[in-house]
Write a structure and sequence with these properties.
By secondary structure, the chain is an alpha+beta fold. It has ten helices and ten strands. Helix 1 runs antiparallel to helix 4 and helix 8 packs across helix 10. The longest helix has 24 residues.
Amino acid sequence: MDGDLTLVFKALADPTRRALLDRLRERNGQTLGELCGELAMARQSVSQHLAVLEAANLVSTAWRGREKVHHLNVVPLHEVQERWIDRFETPRLRVLSAVRRAAEEPEMTDQPTFVYVTYIAATPERVWQALTDADLTATYWGHRNESDWQPGSTWQHVRTDGSGTADVVGTVVESVPPERLVLTFPGSDEQRSGTPSTVTFTIERDRELVRLTVQHRDLPTAADTAAVSTGWPAVLANLKSLLETGRVLPQAPWEFAAEPRTGQLADHD
């Protein structure tokens, strides 16, 4: 038993692994790609952390069709609680925990996150190219996404009207072709003065399709969240049409959507 608990303590010692357990506690039965979408980390690194959690019996896996899903196993944690925690004064510990949470709450933030998933009849490589090729983005987005796409590099969302104006200038946080791209996405004026939001593109093969997940995090206001919730679906609808038919939609889909405030998610001059 002590050997098993050694693996448990080793697994719990890493903050990333604890974060993965938190994700599964919030929503059990997630795929590797879904778990990666919550962390600014390469798919291979997350897979290695999950292997440690599996070895400690804190995570179990099962196949759902062709997808491997991960489930939280609380039995080892219960054994730790029975052996050590229950021997302390549980009511006193609960009071201390409540006091600590109350003291931390004023510093906590609850900034909105927008998540959008679409399925595209293409390869992961083609989807990656559509996100990073300046000419392709100009075709379906009305802006050129320009960068060398290396971590730490600048990327620009440049108008195609010949003015050379960049409506968004951000940083490439992570670049793992053709699986994952993470960018800072400064948008509205009030956001530029603080911490920029972050956009994560996760590209996963799903049988004959590609599952593209876009997660826009740390949006400063509910209005920004509402804006990107119309902007991203419009842009991705045009991307999907271009990759599947070779043509963009006959009418720009963002013409039906409200004007976005956080970044220029559509072709607006």
